[in-house]
Write a structure and sequence with these properties.
With about 325 residues, the chain is an alpha+beta fold. Helix content is about 35%, strand content about 25%. Helix 2 packs across helix 3.
Length: about 325
């Protein structure tokens, strides 16, 4: 599977973008490794180069109208213990020389200096984040379980393109109300069945219950809900094809195809990448409207001023 976790964003209006225009826009914000005292870096790399060793590979890969993108995040890791050791030595030395205790602000300044001195020698830690734009489906899908990473991807893409009219899925109702009702009544829409995990939270006391690999139709789960707990995270199965978990922010996690084809080691990596992207994009194109409709539907955006209309989401 191309990626198993996703944050989904909905375009508020149609955008037209061909491959050459997208390539040009991304090239101005290519990934540059951390160097010197630069603690982090975020930029575009080729999604194709992940599959084949191609230094000049394009920064986007288009399959059936979907533009696959890949960002790299790099952070230099300075061990806290190393900073603390230097701070202790420097503070002790200054206090002995000056015969006084240093203030909190002075200690903080020494800590900042110690961090900066260690940063050039720190080892970088990097991560690739895949995502795709589907203008036809008005979707941007970012393959990560981290909201900050999804926002970094989104913001970098917006800067690269100059404008990117997207918002989180504009669901009309509170998803948690539906999750809780489905656990209580088992009255799920026809396309969905319950999975085997959920998170339940008491909104007044703050206590929570986590259920994993458990039959959600049990009396135990029902008793938690009837005692006032609400469901904030729910495992679902869509049409017997896709297993996933959705939370109250509509982040999709732990996706797994239930009828995944066998992968052969000698399969062409680009062909496999194309197949994975096509399968994921087609599945989400069909599943997301089913999910959003089940949760009360999406609000619509005006083509002219992006204001929400009264038309029910499809």
């Amino acid at each position: 599977m191309l990626f198993t976790n996703a944050f989904v964003f909905r375009m508020t209006r149609a955008i037209t973008l061909n491959e050459d225009e997208l390539e040009s826009a991304l090239s101005a914000h290519q990934f540059v490794p951390c160097s010197g005292i630069r603690p982090s870096s975020f930029g575009w790399i080729s999604p194709v180069a992940l599959e084949q060793d191609q230094e000049d590979a394009p920064l986007q890969h288009t399959v059936a109208g979907c533009h696959l993108l890949c960002a790299r995040r790099e952070d230099k890791v300075v061990p806290a213990s190393a900073v603390a050791e230097q701070v202790t030595e420097r503070v002790s030395r200054v206090e002995q020389v000056e015969g006084r205790k240093l203030s909190t602000q002075e200690r903080q300044n020494i800590s900042d200096d110690a961090f900066a001195s260690l940063l050039p020698q720190a080892l970088p830690r990097s991560k690739q984040i895949l995502g795709y734009l589907s203008p036809t489906d008005q979707l941007l899908v970012v393959g990560t379980s981290s909201r900050p990473e999804a926002e970094m991807f989104l913001n970098t893409l917006r800067v690269s393109l100059g404008s990117l009219p997207v918002v989180p899925p504009p669901i009309r109702s509170n998803p948690g109300d539906y999750y809780t009702r489905w656990l209580t009544t088992r009255g799920l829409p026809d396309q969905f069945t319950l999975g085997d995990q959920c998170d339940l939270t008491d909104p007044e006391e703050g206590s929570s219950v986590t259920c994993r690999r458990q039959d959600l139709a049990t009396l135990e789960v029902r008793n938690h809900v009837e005692s006032g707990k609400v469901c904030t995270r729910l495992g679902l199965i869509w049409r017997g094809e896709l297993r996933f978990v959705v939370d109250r922010d509509l982040a999709i996690k732990q996706m797994k195809f239930l009828d995944a084809a066998e992968i052969h080691d000698d399969e062409d990596p680009i062909a496999k990448l194309d197949a994975d992207l096509s399968q994921l994009a087609l599945t989400l194109k069909q599943m997301l409207p089913d999910l959003y409709n089940a949760l009360g539907g999406e609000a619509r955006f005006s083509e002219d001023d992006f204001k929400l209309s009264d038309e029910a989401g499809a």
